[in-house]
Fold this protein.
Amino acid sequence: MSPITAIQQNGSTPAPAAAFDLDAYFRRIGYTGERTASRATLSTLILCHAQTIPFENLNPLLRWPVRLDLPSLQQKLVYDGRGGYCYEHNLLFSQVLQTLGFQVKHLAGRVMWNVPEGVVPPRSHMILRIDFDQQPYIVDVGFGGMTLTDALRLEPDIEQTTPHEPYRLIKANDLFVLQANVGGEWRSLYRFDLQEQLLTDYEVTNWYISNHPNSHFISGLIAGRSDPDRRYALRNNVLAVHYLDGRNERHELTTVAELRAALTEVMQIALPDTPELDAVLQRLISLSPESQPVPHRSA
């Protein structure tokens, strides 16, 4: 029984699953370091993952199912060279960490990034809690263009550095709010509590956000990936590049070939070989400029 299957039944952290191909995952992210449950291993794995497995929503956009079972996650994100969104990233990464001996719990949060003031979104985001050396940490490798590139101590009111932006957690009653310092301004990404979630909790919301007609995951293209000195964010046919030195670029892609190149070369996605993909990409190219959202490192 895999850890992903077992959390559905009782929420416990089970023994590693023999069916999980850790070697293939390490090849996918280019990791050659130690296989120990250490802080250094955790940091390196997070950074490697964020720089090689992109955030992307091609399955919902193509009206394909998003499956959260371990074989499907491993096939799509590891063997097929694809990416995914938060449930796919964090469930796969949870399996990796548990296989290495980390103690992992699964949490849920409400996204605040680019959400208008006063709007209360559903608890649709997945976060990992790692307990290591009697210190709890937050890990999240699935938040689009603002994905964490290191673990954060679950400790409020301190600025914590990462290979990219500084982050902090603030406490609001029983909730934690994760904030990032973007351009000198602290901006909220999401809020969460410490109630442990089961796979069935994620399955319900996963179906909703990958099928509901009002979900932005089925109405437009979203992709993101990090490099050592920058972050990429793609929203429909607008590609943004946010450099760590404060520079920003915005590129409007005007052909299907340019959009394909952004997905394969910038986001490093092995695109599925399906005839409907180009038709979907052409629709995104044809959107009027007025209807295009600015890709503020979208999650």
Q: What stands out?
A: The CA atoms of residues 69 and 125 lie 17 Å apart. The chain has ten helices and twelve strands. Residues 5-18, 290-299 have pLDDT under 50 and may be disordered.
